Amino acid sequence: MMTDLKEAVSAAKLTKTEKAIADFIVRHETEVSFMTAADIAAKVGTSDASVIRTARALGYTGFNELQKDIQQSLSYKSRYGSNSIMSPSQKLISNMQALNSVDLADNQLGLAINNLKKTISYNTIEKIDDVSDMLINAKRKYFVGFRVASGVAECLGISMRHLVSDVRLVTSGDFSAIEYFNDISAGDCAFFVNFPRYPKIIDTLFTMAKNAGAKTIIMTESSSAPHAKEADILLTASVDSMSFFNSYIAPVFLAELIAADVSRKKAIECEVRMKNLDIYVGEANLY
């Protein structure tokens, strides 16, 4: 079955007890793969019957099928490094077998294609259309991402600077980020690129944007990620990797898709803006 457990929990209609059980399972997948329903019940403070009902509410025939799915998922993650919440050192250790494979390039290509396919399936054309409209209509556009994720924010932010005005890039996770967001207001839009392991400063910036009445867009790995349910628009991208960092091929694809949609909608205005840029960029030899 190999279900995305976080997605299943997010989509299911669970009671308070079932939600507590499901949250425990998601947070302790490795331990749960070896535990009985009674073991989990004891940890959560409920009955093993409730654990079985939770498994069924998540779409399984019972706890045994849920546990088997978790075991298969962990086996896949161990081979292909799809557990994006791991630290870089943990990923490197868990992925060593795949990294030593003679088919390294083929394995990496297969994983990248799988990430793209999953990402395309997560995001409808209608959702991309909503994102581009929100960015076009916003007064100021803030693109936020830190560490490796800053590359995705810059890819989209730099592209958008060629297409529309009032674009702000926030890629330094220090006091300057809070200074930038001190000016955010209703009518603006904040686009957050936020993948594990989630930087805490994004919690602060997201709160500032929401308190100011600005629109928010989040690109992350699942609907159970921080602030995913609070954002005006959620974009999900698969970042499974064979190495020690997340793979950002699929997030960059989404960034390019959004930029392409904005340029399609604003073709005439974009052409004028970019021709003007070309004059001065050419004079300065900045390409």
Summarize the entry for a quick read.
The chain is of the alpha/beta class. It has 15 helices and 5 strands. Strands 2-1-3-4-5 form a 5-stranded parallel beta sheet, with helices on both faces.
How would you describe what is shown here?
By secondary structure, this protein is an alpha/beta fold. Helix content is 59%, strand content 8%. The chain has helices at 5-11, 16-27, 29-32, 37-44, 48-57, 63-80, 88-94, 96-99, 104-122, 125-137, 150-163, 175-181, 201-211, 249-265, 267-284; strands at residues 141-144, 167-170, 189-193, 215-220, 233-236. The chain has a five-stranded parallel sheet, with helices on both faces. The longest helix is centred in the middle third of the chain and has 19 residues, at 104-122. The radius of gyration is 21 Å and the shape is elongated. 34% of the residues are buried. Mean pLDDT is 84; it is low at 78-83.
